[in-house]
Structures are given as C-alpha cells and as structure tokens.
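Justification of computing resources. Each target in the renewal requires a structure prediction run like the one illustrated here; the chain below, 212 residues long, is used simply to show the kind of job we budget for.
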Amino acid sequence: MRVALRAIRARDRRRLARLARAHPGVAIHPGASTNLAVARFELGPGARVEIGDGVVTERTPRALRIHVAAGGELRIGAGTWLRTEVEGVQLVVYPGARMTIGADGFLNGCFLSAKSELATGLRTWIGPGSRVYDADQHDIDAETPERRAPVRIGDFTWIASGVTVLKGVTIGSHCVVGAHSLVTSDVPDHALAFGVPARARGRVGDRSSVRP
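Resulting structure tokens:
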C-alpha cells in the first residue's frame, strides 16, 4: 500500500511539473497536496496561479476547477483546504481580474467568480453551495451594461451553506453569515447576519481559535 501511494504521488508530482512547464505563471509550492494533479486547470495566456504550502484537496477527479483567463491572477494562501467531498469547488478568474484566498482558508463545495477583484482573509470559511460574485455576470439590458465592484471577506469569517454574495460587498472579520442568505450590502465586523437581503441581527465574538 505504501509503495503504491508513493508511486501515485510521484506520478502526480510529474503531472504538476508538466503543468508548470506548460504555463510559466503557475507556481505550486512543493508542500501543497499532490492531489492537485487531478484538478481541472483551465489557464489562458499570461495567467498567474500561486498555490501555497500545505494547500490540500481530496482526490476527486475534476471536482476542483481552477479557471484563470488571460492575464488573470489567482493566489491561494498556505494551509487552505479546498474541500470537494460534498460538492465541487470552482474558482473562476476572468481576463485581467484577481482572486486572493487568504491563508488557512476553508472552501467547501463553493463557487467564486472574479471579474475585477475578490479577496478573502485569514481563515475564512465558505460553505457548500455558496457563491460569491464581484460582477453582474452579464449586461442587464440594452442600456445597462454589466457592473463590476470588488468583494472582500474579512479574517475568521464563516459564510454558511447556500449563501450568495454580490458585487461591491465588504464582509468584515469575525462574522457569521447564515445559510441561504443573499448579501447585497456591507456587513460590519463581528456581525451575525442572515436573511434576504442579509442584515446584521446579532453579534459574534472572537472566532480566531475556531477550526472547521
């Protein structure tokens, strides 16, 4: 069993090395999980992807999708868990956009889309079925073009399952956003927010010692 596991890891390292050779903008830390070799990488010309030390994911073929279009940039901080056991994780970066996932994050079966800039903080959790968008995704009508505005999610914040976060929103640190909420406006630090649209309805204490 150990021999077989070592052989699989060696093969995966070769696959990741080929990916980096084919796309010079890709930098995967040697300490990141070799399971990243079964992810679906869709990379345009000039795309930049940086995956930090200790980033882990399950060995679920193609359940992790990393799409970075031409000139886009994706950074995944050290110690982040991209969990694909419940649902797949999709990280989509459009041309010239930037997505930054803070260290020790927990992305659990969620979808993140950056057309301008999307950033999560230290130890941010995003639950299954949740979606984060920094743009309308398309024009509204013939006279209203697509609007884009950065999204920022603070340190130690938990976005529960089935939440949708829309463009231009800043969610503070040490927050909890309840399941199936629609976040259309800013959420202050230490807020318990939920609803459609989400509103701050309580206070959350220090979450810095909480683990997934």
